[in-house]
């Protein structure tokens, strides 16, 4: 139970498991133009729908694996800026790292800082052997961040039930057991 509530931090950020208190924030984030364009409409259009998404998607995985989505909070003022996490997605071999930020917090290094911490945790704390990432072919900012994190392009993939081709990136744990 303790690992479910574990918070992490970086120099400028707190990473806290997303919970129902984040419903208004998640509602806003999931309806930003970039989220809708590059990640897709998750049909979260109310606070109640955001709470249900958190409970049925995020917390179900968190309880099962000990990790999921983290709300990224700026230490200096406590503002919720984005989310970053590890996702066990249907149709992917490996756990997917993902990130999204409100537009006003993009381009300031927060995505890299949060993702770098989550990637380190994936290997060092959660014992993953490989982390993957999928991104819309048009999302060059996301692709650039993935490359900066050390993920390498591994080809194209189409997830079941979707006809859109996505770019697949991956990184294997460098440390041999």
Name some characteristics of this structure:
177 residues; alpha+beta; Aminopeptidase; globular
Walk me through this protein's architecture:
Keywords: Acyltransferase, Transferase. InterPro entries: Acyl_CoA_acyltransferase (IPR016181), GNAT_dom (IPR000182), N-acetyltransferase (IPR051531). Pfam families: Acetyltransf_3. Residues 13-174 form the N-acetyltransferase domain. The chain has helices at 23-30, 33-39, 47-65, 110-124, 140-148; strands at residues 8-9, 13-17, 69-74, 80-87, 95-101, 130-136, 152-158, 165-172. It has an eight-stranded mixed β-sheet. It is built from five helices and eight strands. The chain has one domain (3-127): Aminopeptidase (3-Layer(aba) Sandwich), CATH 3.40.630.
């Amino acid at each position: 139970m303790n690992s479910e509530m574990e918070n992490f931090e970086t120099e400028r950020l707190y990473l806290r498991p997303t919970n129902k208190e984040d419903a208004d924030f998640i509602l806003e984030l999931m309806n930003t133009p970039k989220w809708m364009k590059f990640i897709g409409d998750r049909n979260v259009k109310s606070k109640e729908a955001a709470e249900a998404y958190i409970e049925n998607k995020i917390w179900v995985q968190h309880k099962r694996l000990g990790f999921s989505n983290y709300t990224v909070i700026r230490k200096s003022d406590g503002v919720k800026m984005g989310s970053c996490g590890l996702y066990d997605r249907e149709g992917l071999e490996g756990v997917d790292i993902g990130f999204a930020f409100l537009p006003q917090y993009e381009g300031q290094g927060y995505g890299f800082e949060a993702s770098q911490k989550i990637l380190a945790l994936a290997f060092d704390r959660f014992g993953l052997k490989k982390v993957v990432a999928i991104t819309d072919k048009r999302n060059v900012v996301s692709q650039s961040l993935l490359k900066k994190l050390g993920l390498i392009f591994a080809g194209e993939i189409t997830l079941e039930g979707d006809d859109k081709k996505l770019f697949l990136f991956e990184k294997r744990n460098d440390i041999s057991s």
